[in-house]
Amino acid sequence: MKQHDPEPEPPAPGGILWDIAGEARSLLALPAALTLQVAHVAVGAGVDEHSVFRTDPWGRGERSLRSVMLWVYGGDAAAEEGRRLRKLHRTISGTDTRGRSYHALTPAYYSWVHATGFPLYLQAQRCLGSRPFTEAQERGLYAEWLQVGRILGLRDRDMPQTVEEFWPYYRKVLADEIELTDVVRELVAVDVPVPPPDRGPLPVRLVLRALWPVLKPPLARFRRFLTIGLMPPDARDAIGLPWTPVQERRLRRFGAVTRRVVPLLPERLRYLPMARRARAAEAARAR
Predict the structure, then answer these.
(1) I need a labelling partner for 21 at 20 to 30 A (CA). Which of 9, 74, 98, 205 fits?
(2) 3-class secondary-structure state, position 23
(3) How far, in Å, CA of 54 to CA of 10, rounded?
(4) What are the phi and psi torsion angles at 155 (to 5°)?
(5) How much is the pLDDT for 5?
(6) Which pLDDT value is given to residue 4?
(7) Per-domain boundaries in the chain
C-alpha cells in the first residue's frame, strides 16, 4: 500500500515569522516583494499575460495577502492553500520577452517568487524594525522561510538550503534574469489608473470613492516611495530603479517614526485579523 508523504508543517508558533509576517511594518514591504518577483523576466511575463492585477487590483491584493497569512498562521489550512496555488498556476505558460518558453510552476521561476520574501523581510527589518536581525535570527528566519517553501510545493532541491547557499543564488538571478519589465514599470508608476477600493464597509468605500481624485495622487507617490525604498539596494540597482540620497534620508525618517509608533499599538491595530487570532489562540493555549 502506497504511503502518502506527510503534510508540510507551517512555521511554528512563537517563531520569527509569527512575530513579523502579519505585523504592520512587514506589510509595508509587500509591494516591494511583488515588484522584485515580477522583475524576473519569466515571472513578469506570466503576470503580464495572465494576472488580473490591472482589472481587479484590490481583489488581487486581498487574495495575495490572505495567502501569506495562511502560510504562516493557517495551521492545517496552510498546506491546502499551497495546493490551491499550485493548481491555480498549472495552466499559466507562454513566452517571455527573451523568446523563451515559461511555465509558472517551473522550479526556477516558482522558487524565485518564494525566494524574494527572505531579502525583503531583512530589508524591512533594517529600515523599519527596532534593530537589524542578528546572524542567528537571520538563520532562524531562513529556516522558517524554507518551511513556507515546502508548503508552496517546492522541493528541497529547488531551494538553497542554507543562508550561505542563498546569497550566491540570489546574486546570480539578479545578474541574469532581472530587468525593468513592463509590469515593474506599472507597479512603480504614479499615473496608472487605479479604481477606488472596493473592499471594506460600505460607508468607507463611499467616502473613498468621493475623495479618490484627491487621495490617489499622494497615495500613488507614497506607494512608489515605499516600493523602491524597501527594495534591497542590490535588487533596486539590478532592476534600474532610481533612488536618491534625499529619498534615503526620507526613508530613514519614516523608519524612525514607524519603529517608535508601531510597537506601541495594541494587537488589534498592529496585526492583521488572521495573525491576531492565531497569536491570541496560541497565547491562550500556552497559558
Answers:
(1) 205
(2) strand
(3) 31
(4) -90, 155
(5) 64
(6) 57
(7) 16-279
Residue type, 125: Q
Q: Terminus-to-terminus CA distance in the chain, angstroms?
A: 42
Closest CA to 25 of 125, 140, 164, 163: 125
Grid cell of 108 as nine digits:
526556477
Distances (CA, A) of 174 to 113, 124, 239: 13, 19, 8
Distance separating alpha carbons of residues 84 and 259, to the nearest angstrom: 35
Q: Sign of the C-alpha dihedral, residues 50, 52, 54, 55? A: positive
Residues in the chain: 287
Question: Looking at this protein, which amino acid is placed at residue 58?
Answer: W
Q: Which is it for the CA torsion 44, 46, 49, 53, positive or negative?
A: negative
Q: Which grid cell sits at 211?
A: 475623495
- Taking the CA atoms of the chain, what radius of gyration do you get in angstroms? 19
pLDDT tens for each residue of 226-236: 999 999 999 99
Alpha helices in 90-232, H assignment, sequence order: 107-115, 117-128, 135-151, 163-177, 182-188, 202-229
Q: Can you list the residues of the chain whose pLDDT is less than 50?
A: 1-2
Per DSSP, the three-state class of 178 is: strand
- Alpha-carbon distance 187 to 227, whole Å? 8
**Planar angle of CA 149, 154, 160, nearest 5 degrees:** 70
